Amino acid sequence: xKLLLASFLLLTLNAANAQSWPQQPVRVIVPAPAGSxxxxxxRTLGEKLKERWKQPLIxxxxxxxxxxLGMDVVAKAAPDGHTLGIGFNGPVAFxxxxxxxxxxxxxxxxxxxxxxxxxxxxxAVNASVPAQTFGEFVAWARQQGNKVxxxxxxxxxxxxxxxxxxxxxxxxxxxxxxxxxxxPAGQSLAAGDTQALFSVxxxxxxLVQGGRIRLLAITSARRLDAMKDLPTLAESGxxxxxxxxxxxxxxPAGTTLEVLERxxxxxxxxxxxxxxxxxxxxxxxxxxxxxxxxxxxxxxxxARKWGxxxxxxxxxxx
Length: 318
Hints:
By secondary structure, the protein is an alpha/beta fold.
């Protein structure tokens, strides 16, 4: 009887904690610069979530170390649900295969909450590059030897690994120049400091419209309705080539299940709102939404897939 009473009291206390959360502003760490896709996603969701949570949502940008700088802050935060992070491929699924040492262990110190969005990368080149098609780009890059440089959104990012995979299968050389997020990488490309870049499309569209860069291909399995004229790498001579940049919310390990479930339910509800879906669709974002278990299974699958590619290509970062 005492055991049943203790269990009942614990359940009641946990439910009360979830209902009373949040008791202060919720800080969301964005491991990328202001103006990046991750930043835009969090701010879009935040406008709706603060209505549900009755507390401000504070966005804190901490770019650097391929996203690990920001996610390390999340991993070491108090597990009370008031510090969250929007993690992505690099510092969550790729980094354990890329680095001998990390400041945190994603599997031990971070708890997946929900997949927010995903989207393919696009291959962009500086306007001065003579290639007008993806096939012409590969032929041109092969002729340049090691004179081609490509930017990325950081060491170990989807942007970085996608180009390394393409280099491996297409047979050309290029020098990697990492940047801290999409805004500086895009500006580098537009200025001609680098000649190519894999990135998600939204951050690059203003530069495309300004005629400073152009898009040659996309890494989704099928063409997207929003960019029907952009061929996939799979249809351009590399069947099976697919690379998605994904992101989702994480909490520090030790955060109570009740709070995690509350966050998951609220974010799922916001992702289903027509205005949010329309806003993300315009940016070429594929809506996520999932249970925490589904998100974790997805991360595990991505880690195995890209871990094998990292080992095959031989990418190691220290």
